[in-house]
Amino acid sequence: MNEKETNDKLQRITKLLEIGGTMLANHHECGAPMFRYQGKIVCPVCDFQEKPEPPRESKRAPESQKAAKTQKSGQEPEPVDLQFIKRIILTKIHEITTSLEDETDLHRMKDKLDCIEQGIKILKLMQE
Question: What is the dihedral of CA 35, 39, 45, 46, to 10 degrees?
């Protein structure tokens, strides 16, 4: 897997965290951590890969339309609080680390360590 593919996967994972997804200890066949989002269990890589990403300019149009709708209703859009997201990721890493102390199943240990690794990678990307 090249660096661009890795970055794309991490961006999808980060986006899913930003929009309220919960990272689970389980992993998909592709190796990505599974997420719970809107009551469904999804893979951020495979489940969202089928939709081709529009060019960056067209991504801005829906956001501006969304902002226009929000402004019409008299509310301002809430900014994304990256510090809040970082705290959530750190909390999850801590919870998973704590649960590793009593874990005896090697497969579950590997899954948890993979989740911790993904969390750390996401934090590093957010610092850039």
Answer: 130
